[in-house]
Amino acid sequence: MAPMILYPAIDLKEGHCVRLLQGDMQKATIFNDDPAAQAAAFEAQGFTALHVVDLDGAFAGKPMNAAAVDAILARVKMSVQLGGGIRDEATIEAWLGKGIARVIIGTAAVRDPDLVRRAAARFPGKIAVGIDAKDGFVAVEGWAKTAQLSAVELGKKFEDAGVAALIYTDIARDGGLTGLNIDATLALAKAVHIPVIASGGLASLADIERLTAPDCAILAGAISGRALYDGRIDPAKALALLRKD
């Protein structure tokens, strides 16, 4: 089995690299004014894949930080997956054409599931679904609204669609450094045959060690944000732990 991938996260707000607390745009901490430089720093630390979210785009329903994403793509060779405001085939095609390795569809996966199916068929291996959960239910539009749909119910909708991955985020933990919601993430991973990536709350090397336990072997990866920015996680140690057999 391939080693679990640890994705450092770059969240974009008004061209800056920020981190939010529980998805609240009013609780944004700017960590770098140059997202491309931050991406290059992550690449230099040994990361091979990057998770990028256009926060403004998630609220606007269309790309809002394209210049910053373009700068990241021009600066690094690592694989980049992108979410936020991607809600039609034209936008998906445009980003993949620019070199994005994988596009993440969130709100549109709830509102227009056929879009996911069409895109996954047209771009094999290039489409992921972002499942962001608040109190067990899926949140949409930059987490501003909640749909009456559970994470597992949404994941199962795409079992036969050819989706490359599901990215599961527990909103209550995101940015709070309280640890991943392993139980909920594993429940989703056990309910579907699609690879699942854990996100939201990863806080320490202890969390990384937890991901190396046998029950987490079914997970494809994890995303880390704030803990990498403020030094709670040493990149070299984290990557070494995940590369162990």
Model description:
This protein has 245 residues and is α/β, with parallel strands linked by helices. The chain is 36% helix and 30% strand. It has helices at 35-44, 55-60, 66-75, 89-98, 107-111, 113-122, 151-157, 182-191, 205-211, 226-229, 235-243; strands spanning 5-13, 16-21, 24-32, 49-54, 79-83, 102-105, 127-134, 137-140, 145-150, 165-170, 196-199, 219-224. It has an eight-stranded parallel barrel, surrounded by seven helices. The radius of gyration is 16 Å and the shape is globular. The relative contact order is 0.15.
Task: Describe what is shown at a glance.
The protein is an alpha/beta fold and 245 residues long. The protein contains 11 helices and 12 strands. Helices cover 36% and strands 30% of the residues.
Task: Provide the β-strand percentage band.
Answer: 25-35%
Instruction: Compute the number of helices.
Output: 11
Mean pLDDT: 91
Report helical residue fraction: 25-40%
Identify the strand order in the major beta sheet: 1-4-5-6-7-10-11-12
First-residue to last-residue Cα separation = 9 Å
* C-alpha-based Rg, rounded: 16 Å
Q: What is the ordering of alpha helices and beta strands?
A: EEEHEHHEHEHHEEEHEHEHEHH
- What best-fitting shape do the alpha-carbon axes yield? globular
Main sheet?
8 strands, parallel, barrel
By DSSP, the count of extended strands is 12
The unreliable regions are none
Structural class: alpha/beta
